[in-house]
Amino acid sequence: MAVDSQTKNKVFLFGIDGAAPELLFDTWLSDLPTIRSLVERGCHAKLNSTIPPITIAAWNAMLSGKEVSQLGVFGYSYKNASGETKIADSSLIKTELLWDYLGHENKKTIALYVPLSYPAKPINGIMVTDFLTPGVNSNCTYPEQIKEKIKTLGNTECFFDVAVGLAGHKGLEVGVLIEKTYEMTKMQLALLNDLITTHDWDVCVAVMIGSDRLQHMLWNHFDPKHRKFIKNSPHANALKEYYIYLDTELGKILKQLDDNTTIIVASDHGMVRQEGKININNWLMQEGYLVLKDGVPSKKTRFSTALVDMEKSIAYGSGAYHARVFINKEKVGKDYEKIRQELTHKLKAIPDDSGKPIKTVVFRKEDIYEKLDDRECPDLTIYFDDLRWASNPDLGQESIYSWETALGADTAGHSRQGSFIIAGKNIKHEKNIGELDICQVAPTILKALNSKSQHGIKVKHAEVFTNEYANE
């Protein structure tokens, strides 16, 4: 039975993973009536993502107001205290998140499919975990009985993601990928609609991962500027049609929400067509910075520091789409800064595969992060050609350029800016407000709920509220 009050302020955040502002606000806006209506009666902005703009870090920065080093999440894998490489999960996160903040104020949250929420943690409300979830019989919901609802929805094997395993979507044939994406999304939306109408809540956050899966694999089907563009592809409109589907379903959801609900549509990052991959560890070996142990196979191999001869190596790389470079401080000693400057200069000089210069940005850790002592904090973070050239850490490629990683290929990578839209009775009708930082979203939600505390968040909320509301 629905028990929502018709007078309290609420926030509904609909996440479209990887939604690029160029598509959402420009190219496709006229075909998305629900999103267009929110844009016209509220505010929208390009949302500057985390450095790096990876899904699991960016969503948690959005929902905490904290940057990557404060979260403690730099990538999809990490080394535990025993030196074993593990896949990231929710236990890594070192800060409280929105539902923790609101729990202190006795406010209730429905958190659905938020990346890096597995395994589920007890919250004041309901949680259903993300695409890293191994299956419906795992610790994927809080409270546990929500699993029973999921089991009634259909094929639970693709409820959390379109394929089993990290990056499993890269191995699917395009037609199957599209079919599985709709199957997954329909189940996720069905549960969302059920929960928001049968439970009390102050905030509901739901993240649709299907957009990310399609964008990574379908960009060359519709973008004529892509170097692997498929002319007359039968899937040329598939991504646009999926956005139209989400827009239609969002419209149905909004009709169930009262006038006291502030609506946010947001993405963690955007997407950009991929020109190719720069094999960072191949380059480091070529330049004499990285030496592998004897016996490393020459075929395509996932990179691991276990393959590195640390006594002979100065640096090694990791990261996908962006590159992360770690300097072997024990070996370089007092020459650390000299080596870092040398690497920066050489990295910026790497051309594309035809020898033409590209615009590469190299970030030093102290310029972008507050906490520098985490073992996963890289010495350098690199965006090759503003992320149009992805980085590939895997081994076994013939040169420093390739199209595939050891896991397969994709046609688009993450870009620096996602999308942000906010509308509601207390929101200004200013339409385009320029750019916001992703860490401003959490304090904006707290402001919309009249929260009395900023919960240690240093950034300020977005200036989107009406003067009357701002002065309350």
Q: Which structural class best describes the helix and strand composition?
A: alpha/beta
Q: How far do the termini sit from each other?
A: 33 Å
Report the sheet-strand fraction: 15-25%
- Radius of gyration, taken over Cα atoms and rounded to an integer in Å: 22 Å
Gross morphology:
globular
Residue-averaged pLDDT, rounded? 94
Supply the number of helical segments. 15
CATH topology of the largest domain: Alkaline Phosphatase, subunit A
Assembly form of the protein? single chain
Unreliable runs, pLDDT <50, ≥5 residues? none
In the CATH hierarchy, what is the architecture of the largest domain at level 2? 3-Layer(aba) Sandwich
Per CATH, the class of the largest domain reads: Alpha Beta
What characterizes the major β-sheet?
9 strands, mixed
Specify the helix fraction band. 25-40%
Strand order of the largest sheet: 7-6-5-8-1-9-19-2-20
Q: Count the strands?
A: 20
For CATH, the homologous superfamily of the largest domain is named as Alkaline Phosphatase, subunit A
Describe this structure in words.
The protein is of the alpha/beta class and 472 residues long. The chain has two domains: 10-274 and 415-470, Alkaline Phosphatase, subunit A (3-Layer(aba) Sandwich), CATH 3.40.720.10; 276-409, Gyrase A, domain 2. It is built from 15 helices and 20 strands. The chain has helices at 21-27, 33-41, 55-62, 68-71, 98-104, 146-151, 174-198, 210-222, 238-254, 280-286, 329-332, 336-348, 365-368, 441-448, 467-470, and strands spanning 10-16, 43-48, 77-79, 85-87, 109-112, 125-128, 141-142, 203-208, 261-266, 270-273, 276-279, 315-318, 323-327, 361-364, 380-383, 389-392, 401-402, 412-415, 417-423, 431-437. The strands form five sheets. A nine-stranded mixed beta sheet has the order 7-6-5-8-1-9-19-2-20, with helices on both faces. Strands 12-13-15-14 form a four-stranded antiparallel beta sheet. The longest helix is centred in the middle third of the chain and has 25 residues, at 174-198. It is globular.
